[in-house]
Write a structure and sequence with these properties.
61% of the residues lie in helices and 7% in strands. By secondary structure, it is mainly α. Among the domains are: 47 residues; 77 residues, Arc Repressor Mutant, subunit A (Orthogonal Bundle), CATH 1.10.10.10. The chain has a three-stranded antiparallel β-sheet with strand order 1-3-2. Helix 2 crosses helix 6. 13% of the residues are buried. One of its GO terms (biological process) is response to stress.
Length: 178
Amino acid sequence: MAPASPLPMDPIAEAKRQWIAHGWADAADGMAAFSSVMRTHQLMYSRVDAVLKPLGLSYARLELLRLLSFTRGGALPMASASARLQVHPTSVTNVVDRLERDGFLRREAHPTDGRATLVVLTPAGRTLVEAATAALNEQVFAQPGIPPDELRSMTGILARFRRASGDFTDPAPHPEPL
């Protein structure tokens, strides 16, 4: 969250200065970059949370509802939801429990795999996810506070870092149609 009033200096720049002063110049830029990303995450998350909290949502709950809303039938196996959201199955179960309790999704037996459980978006869940997405788009995503060209550059840099860290691989190219 942002401080009540801005600090009179950048604490990450000061940390970098101290890193260099203590003989760690070779690691100072990395420390500053990682610290900047973590602090930026806090600031961005607080903006998103301020929009979602009045709707009774966390970002994790929104992500699951939005994922389900993107599917053809509004349903996915829980294991697929876990993989696509890149979170542990226990975390998905906790989110599903709360969303089911609130009537925004339901569990159903998988029609062809007796071991799997589907999570299915309810009409109330669809209404909520559309309202939450509209609010986030209007209040946060459309005006993120970063110029569009810099935003695209930042996203590309972070995607390259994520790919190099093993977060994802590029899909194989589709063959040209015959």
